[in-house]
Amino acid sequence: MTQIHFARTLTAALTLTLTAAVAQTMKDAVPMTSSMSGSMKAVRQGTFRALEAPTQGKAALTKTATGYTLTLTGLKTEPGPDLKILLFAGNLTSATANPKVAGKYLQVGELKKFSGNFTYKIASKDLAKYTSVVIWCDLAAAGFAIADLKGKGLWGMGQRSNGVRLHPSQASSAGRSHIGLKISVELLRGVTIGCSRVDSATSATEFA
């Protein structure tokens, strides 16, 4: 009888543990809210290569819920007059190739300093067709440098659990809960089987 009581007590404790693990897993699998999805970002980025002027640095085009941000990081180029930052739907292989073709470019802003980090906000538009960032000198009609943008260009996606999309920060927690759930299930199964065997043996003894 002591063995039966112990097994049943352990089964009850494991049942409570299993219930808590299920609750935690469901908590982790909360669908992304608007605030979560608003913070998700997709980045297409590239490194500048020189056309007319020796240039270094990186460009990144980031999509947010309200629009786009173009960030130039570690930029260093030669001083020049009337420099513009353009998004261009295509590639330039020479400094004299003109990207200012109707429907193929978007002027993002001006470049008034020639080294540093720069950020340009772009109103919400579909910028998928633009594949490069050009530093363009209007006065000289010459391209100083170009950065080819590469990346999926899609909204970031978390892992999925039972058809529910998770924020990336939730994915690891959900995974840990899932492991704990499996362990609890296996322990509960083993104790239940052991308890049943003890019950059967006891019943047979009492019947005899």
Concise description?
With 208 residues, this protein is an alpha+beta fold. Helix content is 35%, strand content 31%.
Describe this structure in words.
The protein is of the alpha+beta class and 208 residues long. Among the domains are: 39-148, Immunoglobulin-like; 172-203. The protein contains 3 helices and 10 strands. The protein has helices at residues 2-28, 34-39, 168-207, and strands at residues 42-50, 56-63, 67-76, 83-88, 105-110, 115-123, 132-137, 142-148, 160-161, 164-165. The strands form 2 sheets. It has an 8-stranded antiparallel beta sheet with strand order 5-4-7-8-1-2-3-6, with no helix packed on it. It has a two-stranded antiparallel ribbon with strand order 9-10. A hairpin with a 4-residue loop joins β7 and β8 (142-148). α1 packs antiparallel against α3. The protein starts with a helix and ends with a helix. Mean pLDDT is 73; it is low at 29-38, 153-171 and 198-208.
